[in-house]
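testing teh design pipeline on a random one, pls ignore if ur not involved
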């Protein structure tokens, strides 16, 4: 297995409620394609993370505080060392001419990297981003550089009111949905795309242990997110437990809240 490559922290900046953008030196030998993940090691633990931005010199990841590991990342100081390895996994298929990007919460962050990699000669994509409230919104101004962006919030404090899938435009004008966010949101997006006869690609987040498809903690039926994903077409997931069940830290299946 590849060893983590040392990367010095440049900055950890809070950008929304419980969310920070972590900038680190780019020590990867190869740049991830949109949708792929990297493994981030902080000296005691290692977790998969999506890339938000990347250049030759540095890369950014967006971190939401949900546990000890992510909280430690949000508190990193300039000069501290992390370890990076990757990229891994299956990327988005970018061979579509009229996509719509649908992001929910922290799931908007990998879509920013995707948006920056879309071919501008094909036109500006539509981008729909949903958050619980205005204090949770991230990267709206940057998304507007790459596509026609609309935000919505559950409490109505920013943009349209309601869930992002409730506010999607008619899908007949698009040929693919690129989605990342809560599974319930992506489940709804997949079903809507199927009804409209539109392709749908979903960037799935599940609990990882090994990251190479051995432990089964990220299983979706016969698929594993780390090995077969993290990007899947809806037609691959619609007959699995996706959106209905998740796995706990021991790999046991339990209902998705």
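output:
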């Amino acid at each position: 297995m590849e060893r983590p490559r040392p990367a010095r922290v440049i900055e950890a900046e809070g950008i929304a409620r419980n969310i920070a953008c972590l900038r680190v030196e780019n020590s990867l030998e190869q740049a991830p394609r949109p949708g792929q993940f990297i493994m981030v090691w902080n000296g005691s633990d290692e977790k998969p993370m999506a890339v938000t931005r990347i250049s030759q010199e540095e890369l950014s990841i967006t971190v939401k505080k949900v546990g000890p590991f992510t909280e430690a990342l949000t508190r990193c100081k300039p000069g501290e060392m992390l370890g990076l390895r990757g990229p891994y996994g299956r990327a988005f298929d970018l061979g579509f001419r009229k996509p719509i990007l649908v992001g929910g919460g922290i799931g908007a962050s990998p879509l920013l990297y995707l948006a920056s990699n879309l071919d501008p000669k094909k036109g500006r994509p539509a981008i729909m981003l949903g958050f619980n409230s205005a204090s949770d919104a991230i990267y709206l101004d940057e998304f507007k550089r790459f596509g026609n962006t609309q935000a919505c919030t559950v409490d109505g404090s920013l943009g349209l009111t309601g869930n992002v899938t409730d506010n999607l435009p008619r899908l007949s004008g698009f040929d693919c949905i690129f989605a990342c966010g809560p599974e319930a949101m992506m489940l709804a997006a997949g079903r809507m795309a199927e009804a409209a006869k539109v392709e749908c690609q979903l960037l799935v987040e599940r609990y990882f242990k090994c990251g190479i498809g051995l432990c089964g903690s990220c299983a979706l039926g016969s698929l594993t997110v780390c090995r077969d994903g993290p990007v899947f077409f809806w037609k691959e997931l619609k007959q699995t437990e996706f959106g209905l069940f998740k796995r706990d830290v021991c790999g046991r299946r339990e209902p998705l809240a």
